[in-house]
Amino acid sequence: MLSNQANSEPDSANSRIFLAALLAGILPFLIINSNYLIAASEGFVPWCVPYWDSCTSISATGHEGTGFYFFKATMIPMAFLYMWYWRLVKVKLTAFGYRGTAIPTLGIIASLALLCYTLALGAVGDSFSLTRRIGVIFYFTFVYLSQLLIVYRVEKLAIPDPSRLWQLLMCLLILSVGVSTLLLDALIDNYDDYDDAFEWVLALLLHVNFLLGAWGWRTLGKPV
To answer: Which of 56, 109, 123, 219 lies 20 to 30 A from 1 at CA?
Structure first.
């Protein structure tokens, strides 16, 4: 009986972190795209495919109208869901011998940055604009670093994970897109015409990496 209980605990932990990672990947994608449709239908942003038309930023979809309330009502809970996810990551890796604090710390900072960004979205004033800019930069940067560190720690701890290579490739793709934005900003005068599309693409790639992580957490430690 005790043996069966012990065997069920890892499965239960895997299920919780799998669910958290799955929600972290799917829900924000649905939220920001739904918010775009709401804002476009109300005439606050143009109709387009923002991932390559670069017609509007993610932030612009939550400035006015119904989108203003929808974004806050959905993304504020998302910030707390992310905090739950990074706590589960800490617990899971600790069970395999991880003794660091960088991954959960960076993840929590990213979650707080998302919370600040969401609360400041739509507010008028230079201080709110600065809060939004810092919030989105910290969110993207620290989520990416946390995802990259997870791949590194899984490798260092020699944990069987079928998703590790795919997550590493996704991290490299995200890095290449980020570097490309810096180079284009320095090399071309009309980079602002493309900046919004890069923001949508980077958000999409980060969410896809959460889904890859969900696959990994689901099978972590099992024979591959």
So the answer is: 219
Q: CA 224, CA 220: separation in Å to the nearest integer? A: 9
66 in a domain, yes or no?
yes
Each residue's pLDDT tens digit, 15-47 = 899 999 999 999 999 999 999 999 999 999 999
Q: Which residues contact 54 (CB under 8 A, 6 or more apart)?
A: 193, 194, 195, 196, 197, 198
Say if 224 falls within a structural domain. no
Look up the pTM and report it.
0.89
Residue 97 belongs to what domain range?
Answer: 2-219
Number of independent structural domains in the chain:
1
